[in-house]
Design a protein that fits this description.
The complex is a heterodimer of chains A (431) and B (241). Chain A is of the alpha+beta class. Chain A folds into two domains: 194 residues, no CATH class; 219 residues, no CATH class. Chain A has eleven helices and eleven strands. In chain A, strands 3, 4, 5, 6, 7, 8 and 9 form a seven-stranded mixed β-sheet that branches. In chain A, strands 2-10-1-11 form a four-stranded antiparallel β-sheet. Chain B has 241 residues and is of the alpha/beta class. Chain B has two domains: 156 residues, P-loop containing nucleotide triphosphate hydrolases (Rossmann fold, 3-Layer(aba) Sandwich), CATH 3.40.50; 64 residues, no CATH class. Helices cover 35% and strands 24% of the residues of chain B. In chain B, the strands form two sheets. Chain B has a six-stranded mixed β-sheet with strand order 6-7-8-3-9-10, with helices on both faces. Chain B is globular, with a radius of gyration of 18 Å. The interface between A and B is medium-sized, with 21 and 25 residues.
């Protein structure tokens, strides 16, 4: 029997018992559908993250925090007091020791600046402004994006925060509340930001909106330029004791983006040796990616479990088929068909069932995915510009189909072996 | 036993003192207890016996569908033991044709598809299958039924399709196991005529297993078998042994 005839015979055998085939295929469809959906979510989100890394992450910035001392385990009792740890001001409650990553002091900033490869260090001040207001339309709480120097903002309008004068970079979420119909109309408009000083008195600082950025998964909050940060910090510190050492919770360091992976690793290692955690924006976003990758992996595992269960369905179906076709198999063997060919015939049948189920499942997933994407884009993730939750890329889809066919092939080996080993005499006597 | 002139050349199939038993211990059943037989090219031979006599087992062994426990089986000059699985498959596919009492047609496949199954197994291409399949259906006057499903045929038509299937590979031997067993007398006679015509006109060797003495007498030679042993004549068959 030539391969084409075997394939044809296997396919037509599949449709002999339509109900049984339909049920088996349905089980596979469910597994393949789930796996396609989960892998499409994986592709969708990692594509989004990749885009974020390439478009949003500043390629030349490191975010530096102080490495916290090894946290004592709960059983080992309280950690001994370290008199050298900084006691600092700067809006940290107490001495800032509750701040898990530790506090950077001016001495730390100097140390970081001294590391080979660091071009510039910007300590990030801890600012807690109370509200933002535009033209008397109401006061709204605001979140400051301290990481603004780490990203290349995805702008909806205007420009990122230029120096010279007080500038803010709004996010699209603030537009409606502050009374702007769209991003364009907000650019160049004045806002006032309120901040409380040491004694609780509120000071307002005026600023101009330099631009509006799209909300992303990773970075939200209003960006401030250095001038405005300094002005707010000054207002915040009014009335605080004069000789308090200033603490920073974060510093951004610039480096030459052309130095390459190896030099960057060396730079991070140097900083780590001094007791600082240094991460690029890509590293930070990469953490999200790892978490999402893990979740997708678990979902995929469940889909594969469903497929393995469906594989038993294939075994069952084909065993019944072998039983029913005992005579036919015996006849074919009597007529000189080798065991290997019989084996192939049933294997191809199993693989075809897998193929059918996976293609239907994948196509179904694509249909559902297309609808879901539209619905999600209009509702839940409307603020996250450029996020397409489900992306059906050809290679993962092909991989799903091949995986299912592989599982089906493995499931088919048991019935195929049984068929191939049948003795023609016994088979022909079988009533 | 062989009365024809073919005795001059070596037999096509020869069984010497072959034995075959099924089961073990007390359940052991000797289907064949030492039977010898030679089949010469071009002859027709009947293996005659009641059901359970071992006649079908003998045919299965001759057709190389099974292996004897003891004794030798020669295919031409070759001992069947020395043939590889591949050679056995080829021999059964190319040189042997099978006609069964229960037909063994695939019910929902067409007559044509049933007939060309041996060609398919041999790996013959679709075009040649068509020509040879239709030619053999033509020969058995079943060409007009080629597209019908096998399940919709009468018994006689089914047996003609089975003969067509046995003939399609131009075999040297046709093994027929009770070919008329499921047919009425008239249809049975027609099927018999077809088989003997093939033997007479095309020189195809016939090995017919039957319990029907009349069919057996139409053959060139007969082997009577009872309880797994060859016996002398039709008369002996009737006696309690």
């Amino acid at each position: 029997m030539n391969p084409l005839d075997i394939t044809r015979a296997a396919i037509s055998n599949t449709f002999r018992s339509k109900t049984r085939t339909t049920l088996t295929v349905t089980a596979i469809v469910i597994g393949a559908f789930t796996l396609t959906i989960t892998s499409a979510i994986g592709t969708g989100i990692s594509t989004y993250i990749d885009n974020q890394i390439s478009s949003v992450a500043a390629p030349d910035a490191l975010s530096i925090t102080k490495a916290s001392d090894a946290a004592p385990g709960s059983q080992s009792g309280p950690a001994p007091y370290d008199p050298d740890s900084a006691v600092v001001g700067g809006r940290f409650d107490g001495d800032g020791s509750e701040f898990s990553s530790g506090i950077l002091t001016a001495a730390d900033v100097d140390a970081i600046a001294g590391v080979d490869g660091v071009l510039e260090v910007n300590p990030i001040l801890h600012l807690a402004p109370l509200y933002i207001e535009h033209d008397g339309t109401g006061k709204y709480e605001l979140a400051i994006n301290a990481n603004i120097q780490m990203i290349t903002p995805d702008l909806a309008a205007g420009a990122p925060t230029p120096e010279g004068g007080n500038h803010v970079l709004l996010t699209s979420a603030y537009l409606e509340s502050l009374g702007f119909p769209d991003a364009e109309s907000a650019v160049g408009q004045p806002v006032s930001i309120g901040i409380a000083d040491h004694s609780g008195e509120i000071h307002e600082r005026e600023a101009t909106i330099s631009g509006v950025q799209n909300e992303t998964l990773f970075e939200s909050g209003i960006g401030l330029n250095q001038t405005l940060s300094d002005a707010l910090r000054e207002a915040q510190d009014i009335g605080s004791p004069a000789d308090t050492e200033v603490g920073f919770f974060l510093a951004t360091a610039r480096f030459d983006p052309g130095i390459g992976e190896e030099a960057l690793s060396a730079l991070k290692a140097d900083l780590a040796e001094l007791g600082y955690n240094a991460m690029t924006a890509a590293d930070q976003i990469g953490i999200f990616q790892a978490i999402i990758g893990g979740i997708i992996g678990v979902l995929n595992a469940f889909a594969v479990i469903a497929l393995i269960a469906a594989g038993f369905g294939i075994i069952n179906t084909l065993l019944m088929s072998v039983q029913e076709r005992t005579r036919e198999i015996g006849l074919m063997k009597a007529m000189g068909m080798g065991g290997g060919r019989i084996y192939t015939l049933f294997s191809v049948e199993a693989v075809f069932i897998g193929f059918l189920g996976s293609v239907i499942g994948a196509l179904g997933a694509m249909g559902v995915g297309a609808v879901t994407n539209v619905i999600l884009a209009e509702t839940v993730i409307a603020d996250l510009e450029g996020l397409k939750v489900l992306i059906f890329a050809p290679i993962p889809m092909l991989a799903v189909v091949l995986l299912v066919m592989g599982i089906a092939f493995l499931a088919g080996t048991i019935p195929a072996r049984r068929a191939a080993r049948q003795n023609p005499i016994t088979a022909l006597r079988y009533e | 036993m062989n009365t024809t002139a073919t005795t001059l050349s070596p037999p096509m199939l020869a069984a010497h003192d072959i034995r075959k038993s099924y089961g073990k211990g007390t359940a052991r059943f000797d289907a064949l207890a030492g039977v010898s037989l030679s089949v010469y090219a071009g002859e027709s031979i009947a293996i005659v016996g009641k059901s359970g006599s071992g006649k079908s087992t003998l045919m299965h062994l001759l057709a190389l569908l099974d292996q004897p426990d003891d004794g030798t089986l020669m295919v031409g000059d070759t001992n069947a033991d020395e043939l590889s699985v591949r050679q056995l498959n080829r021999l059964r596919n190319q040189d042997f044709g099978f006609v069964f009492q229960q037909f063994f047609l695939t019910p929902n496949a067409t007559v044509f598809d049933n007939v060309v199954l041996p060609l398919k197994i041999a790996g013959v291409g679709a075009r040649e299958r068509k020509t040879r399949g239709m030619a053999v259906l033509e020969q058995l006057e079943m060409a007009d039924k080629a597209k019908n499903k096998a399940v919709n045929l009468s018994g006689g038509q089914k047996q003609r399709v089975v003969i067509a299937r046995a003939l399609v590979n131009n075999p040297k031997v046709i093994f027929a196991d009770e070919p008329t067993g499921n047919l009425d007398t008239i249809t049975g006679a027609l099927v018999e005529n077809i088989l003997f015509a093939l033997n007479r006109d095309h020189g195809i060797t016939l090995v017919i297993v039957t319990h029907d003495p009349e069919l057996a007498t139409r053959c060139d030679s007969q082997l009577f078998i009872r309880d797994g042993r060859a016996v002398r004549s039709l008369d002996t068959l009737g006696e309690a042994a």
